[in-house]
Design a protein that fits this description.
Blueprint (H helix, E strand, L loop, with lengths): L1 H4 L2 H6 L6 H14 L7 E3 L3 E4 L4 E8 L5 E5 L5 E4 L10 E6 L3 E6 L8 E8 L4 E10 L4 E6 L4 E2 L3 E11 L4 E6 L2 E3 L2 E7 L2 E11 L8 E8 L2 E9 L2 E13 L11 E10 L4 E6 L9 E3 L2 E4 L8 E8 L4 E8 L27 H11 L12 H13 L5 H40 L18 H7 L4 H6 L6
Parallel strand pairs: 2-9, 11-19
Antiparallel strand pairs: 1-3, 3-7, 4-5, 4-8, 6-7, 8-9, 10-12, 12-16, 13-14, 13-17, 15-16, 17-18, 19-20, 20-23, 21-24, 22-23, 24-25
Helix pairs in contact: 4-5
Length: about 475
């Protein structure tokens, strides 16, 4: 027993022969009074602690018989013997002492405190187990270095995140916004510390401008340790052409057109201009800054109009394709239909000659030649009321009028036939009955047919009354 406890004697006394003898005597006395117990179990647990925190070491005895419990450090120096602390280190403090447990705390833990600590129980035979203290060191610093402070869209930039002096080596994860990215890590060891550097290659676009790139650390000594950098990306303008007027509907001949060009970029576009693709810009087109105005559209304006914008990164454009439609058509007045339908007679009276100028806007004298007048009036009427651009609309209107006339005629015919049928019906109803000839008079009261013939007017009796004389 004394030989088992001997290594802790010099350490517990702090070194030197004078302090060794009392400790040996104390251990001999304790061994003399310790019974030879069996079935006692000495238990402890490993301890993991973050640098600078408090570690608690516990030596426990199951089925205790009041045997002596002792705690030793990795150098096998006695820290506590029962409730007595031979080691002159105030960071060790007694938390609990009883026959079944010795619990000691170690404050302000450092890397030098890491190692095996021994729990001893003086029984016969003596028992000894050890507990391991592991010290975790979080990264000292976390830094993101970016290759370019300002990048241009389409470029590939390099970012590096460094976690310095950690124990154990840390794991670095990358995020762009909420999306996790994959980097390449390298680990360097300096004494008992590890420095980890992770490299990320990132191809940036305009959608990445202002998005944070996050470097996050996975380490058992720390939670939610991260740092971030915001990307600054320059990109070409984004150009859009919008139609202010007409708001809806078609662009028709004779109506105005107004277009507006908007452009966004980084840096903001400073140069913006309008042009007509594959043709010159019409002279009546008015361009004012980002606006293009055509006050009176015609079909010569058909084409593609382009708005170009540029900045320090590059140039972009947006196109607007213009197609001018015919103006809306209307049904011609009824007075104009007489001049554009059937053929015009060769002889026209003075009344026609005096009324035509009011419609066509031309003055014709009353004594004008009746042979030349029809030709002039017909051509004027054609020019005034049948323009070339709306011929299809007038043909549709005339066709609709013809259908209306035919429908009216059919309705009148049907109505006349119905009236005729009603009149005939009433006529036949009034003349319906039984009719008798004069030969049948007097035959109603006869007993049989022979009597009826004799009694009937014009019968044989009557014939006898009639006499004829021949000279």
């Amino acid at each position: 027993m004394a030989g088992r406890a001997q290594p802790s004697g010099p350490a517990g006394s702090g070194g030197g022969a004078p302090g060794l003898l009392p400790l040996l005597l104390l251990l001999l006395c304790a061994a003399a009074i310790i019974p030879r117990g069996h079935g006692q179990n000495l238990v402890t647990e490993d301890v993991t602690v973050v640098e600078g925190d408090v570690a608690t070491i516990s030596c426990r005895v199951k089925n205790s018989d009041d045997s002596v419990i002792q705690l030793l450090n990795p150098n096998r120096q006695t820290i506590y013997f029962r409730d007595f602390r031979p080691l002159k280190d105030s960071r060790f403090q007694l938390v609990n002492f009883s026959n079944s447990e010795l619990r000691v705390s170690l404050t302000n833990v450092s890397i030098s405190d890491e190692g095996r600590y021994f729990c001893q129980l003086y029984t016969d035979p003596p028992q000894e187990i050890y507990t391991t203290i592991t010290v975790l060191v979080p990264p000292r610093n976390l830094v993101i270095d970016i290759e370019k402070e300002t990048a241009v869209e389409g470029e590939e930039i390099e970012l590096n995140c460094t976690a310095m002096a950690s124990r154990p080596a840390t794991t670095i994860r990358w995020f762009k916004g909420n999306k996790e990215l994959t980097g390449k890590s390298e680990v360097e060891r300096w004494s008992d510390m590890y420095t980890v550097t992770s490299q990320l290659l990132l191809k940036v676009g305009r959608e990445d401008d202002g998005v944070p790139v996050i470097c996050l650390v996975d380490h058992p000594a720390v939670k939610d340790l991260q740092t971030q950098r915001y990307l600054e990306v320059m990109y070409k303008p984004q150009v859009r052409v919008s139609q202010n007027y007409p708001m809806q509907g078609l662009t028709r001949e004779g109506e105005p057109l107004e277009l507006t060009c908007t452009a966004f970029g980084k840096p903001q576009p400073t140069d913006m201009r309008w042009l007509r693709v594959d043709d010159e810009m019409p002279q009546h087109v008015v361009v004012s800054g980002s606006n293009l105005l055509i006050s009176n559209l015609n079909k010569t304006d058909n084409g593609t109009y382009r708005c170009e914008a540029s900045n320090a990164v590059g140039k972009s454009h947006a196109d607007y394709m213009l197609f001018v439609y015919d103006p809306p058509t209307t049904i011609p007045p009824p007075t104009t239909t007489t001049t554009t339908t059937t053929t015009i007679p060769t002889t026209i009276t003075d009344t026609t000659a005096t009324t035509e100028p009011a419609v066509h806007g031309t003055s014709v004298p009353p004594t004008a030649s009746t042979e030349a007048l029809p030709t002039v009036q017909f051509s004027n009427a054609s020019l005034a009321f049948r323009p070339s651009d709306s011929r299809a609309g007038e043909d549709g209107a005339i066709r609709s009028v013809d259908h209306a006339v035919v429908g009216g005629v059919v309705a009148v015919v049907v109505f006349a036939m119905l009236c005729l049928l009603i009149i005939l019906g009433r006529y036949f109803a009034r003349h319906k009955g039984t009719y008798f000839t004069h030969e049948a008079k007097g035959a109603d009261d006869a007993a049989d047919a022979d009597t009826a013939i004799i009694n009937a007017e014009g019968g044989q009796n009557n014939s006898e009354e009639k006499k004829e004389y021949f000279i």
